[in-house]
Amino acid sequence: MNEPQVAFLCLYLLYITIILFFQHTLIMYPFRLLTTFLHELSHAIACWITCGDVRSIRVFENEGGVTSYVGGCRILIIPAGYVGAALWGSVFVMFSGGRKTATGAAGVLVAMLLISLCYAPNRTMVCLNVCYAIVTSVCIYLEWFVFTPILNFVVLFYGAFVGIHAIYDTYSDTIRRSILQSDAYACYEVCPCCLPRCVGVQWAILNGVLQVLAIWIAMVQLSEECEDAGWWECMNGVVGGNDLWDVDGVKHTLEDW
Predict the structure, then answer these.
(1) Are residues 107 and 18 in contact, defined by beta-carbon separation less than 8 angstroms?
(2) What is the distance, to the nearest Å, from the Cα of residue 68 to the centroid of all Cα atoms in its chain?
(3) What is the DSSP letter of 205?
(4) Axis-axis angle for helices 196-221, 80-95 (nearest 10)
(5) Residue 228: predicted pLDDT
(6) 98-115 pLDDT tens trace
(7) Would you say the C-alpha torsion 185, 33, 51, 204 has a positive or negative sign?
(8) Smallest Cα–Cα separation from 87: which of 20, 162, 33?
(9) Contact 121, 166 (CB under 8 A)
């Protein structure tokens, strides 16, 4: 491993340690609300993708939330909450390594925070979204005009917390206990072939895989082989078969063979 990869892993492990120790304290309360927002936003995105109509997106002080919608494919909208929050976390982690990718991830988050305010938000969600939009925008400004790196650290923390908390929420709400109002029970009502706790286990496993995959992609992006390659060029080389890896000190692509 090179120096950036070691630094990334050490910082990620440091974040995870802090998160596990302080996850349920007041310090992490705003980040738990952010995870709830991304959970509800994921329901909304799944509704939009399946041609449904979102009526409201709301986040409450007790860290709960609700997305009201009409139409759409319910069997896809229901699991989008827990899985979608984990997906957001994985995206933040995998894009945190580069300056431009971290800026892109932060910019998309700010856009989603502001767009969601058009869907009948409650007071808690308005305060949450405005504050996060301001803080994240300030970090983007500082990154490009004052000091770098700073946005990489912020985006990585967002990803680590949201990803880990999404896994914990999935376990707490769908595996450890079975609640009639939970997404897992709603999924069971639509597709009774799988019990609510079994649904929760599948979601938890998928959420864990997403976080591990994000770490792997981030490590690939920070490798020496991808140093001079763009994000998509690097991933196309690794996943698509145009290998950029060194063989006897010489870089080869698939066409060379």
Answers:
(1) no
(2) 22
(3) H
(4) 10
(5) 65
(6) 889 999 999 999 999 999
(7) negative
(8) 162
(9) no
